[in-house]
Amino acid sequence: MKITGIDTFLVEVGRRNLCFVKVTTDEGLHGVGEAYSVGPDEATANVVGYFRDWLIGLDPLDIEGIWQRVYLCSRFPGGSVVLSALSGIDHALWDIKGKAYGVPVYQLLGGKCRDRIRVYQNPGGATPEETLENALALQERYGFTAFKTNPLPPDQHDLAWPRVLDYVERKMRLLREGLGLDVEIALDPHAKILEPAKALDVCRAVAPFHPMFVEEPLRPENVEALAGVRAKSPVPIATGEMLYTKWEFRDLLRAGAADIVQPDICCCGGITEMKKIAALAEAEYVTVAPHNPMGPLATAVNAQFSATAPTFLILEYHVDTESPRRDLIDEPYEMVDGYLLLPDRPGLGIELNEEYFAAHPYQPWHRGFPIRDDGSMAMI
């Protein structure tokens, strides 16, 4: 079997675009994948196209060899764009291999160690009260047993720090009292705190309400600073969505900077690299909660991986039944009582809806920049 083509699809869904990859072969089999897209989407698609000439004519079943070729021949260590492109290609190769052997991808990864995948959702909400209302509605309809929310106020950069902490505590108290003790609550400040002391303030403020974890209380570049926060934090620390490859996660784990790692399978290097990252974490007794803000194809890839990871904790998820995302693929994974069910279809078990893609072309999206009154970036 030989690779004969690699195509990308940039598709507009709401306020952001998604980037899908399709690899075709001379035997009629094809595979699909999803690359991370949250800004320089055209660059990611172009890099996939750049790699195309390197891969035409290769055997798509030689996944590790192809991964090494793309990563090493990129010469300089890959950042978000290169690793996103590689991840999308990697997903598609695993999909082809599963179809070639007639088995789900999880069987190729050693077989499953769980039958269903626990998920959580961010219920959104402009106010704490709206967040609780949304969470209760999602819990009733879909059976969610966990949620994640940003604990910081939307105008955080305009408030004195004691006001921020008061908001954090009030929001967490409202959610805990409203959802009860049988629902887990995770918190995500979105790496907007740049001072370790303030990161610890947030962790201590929410500790009485027993959060599942606090995600990215600091940016991940300085793992020693993050390790210092983790050493003093009364709650579990999670991070990893902005890290790439086994080497960056090795440094994070060596520093003792996380209780939970959150690699993104659409930009960390794909399924091939995700398994290696999870193995490193397992050796350190660190659990894995994959970052998954993208589309339903990314969810499928994550579910296949999560079925095989011994230290898997929970998967980020977004209900697609009432959004444009529901039309992106055929036969999305079924959710029952807060868990995704694993299909037994070959490969990833889904196909792209290319007709929908043609009707919803790429639309440029620009990230906003919160600015303080003095003109500086509005991080806390």
Give the topology, please:
Layout: E1 3-13, E2 16-25, E3 30-35, H1 41-55, H2 63-73, H3 80-101, H4 105-108, E4 116-120, H5 128-142, E5 146-149, H6 161-179, E6 184-187, H7 196-206, E7 214-215, H8 223-232, E8 237-239, H9 245-254, E9 260-261, H10 270-283, E10 287-288, H11 296-306, E11 315-316, E12 329-330, E13 335-336, E14 339-341, E15 351-352, H12 354-359
Parallel strand pairs: 4-11, 5-6, 7-8, 8-9, 9-10
Antiparallel strand pairs: 1-2, 2-3, 4-14, 12-15, 13-14
Helix pairs in contact: 1-3, 2-3, 5-6, 6-7, 7-8, 9-10
Question: How would you describe what is shown here?
Answer:
- It is globular, with a radius of gyration of 20 Å.
- The chain is an alpha/beta fold.
- It has 2 domains: 3-104, Enolase-like, N-terminal domain (Enolase-like, domain 1), CATH 3.30.390; 107-347, Enolase-like C-terminal domain (TIM Barrel), CATH 3.20.20.120.
- It is built from 12 helices and 15 strands.
- The strands form 5 sheets. Strands 11-4-14-13 form a 4-stranded mixed β-sheet, covered by helices on one side. It has a 4-stranded parallel β-sheet with strand order 7-8-9-10, with helices on one face.
- The mean pLDDT is 94.
- Helices cover 39% and strands 16% of the residues.
- Helix 6 runs parallel beside helix 7 and helix 9 runs parallel beside helix 10.
- Helix 8 links the parallel strand 7 (214-215) and strand 8.
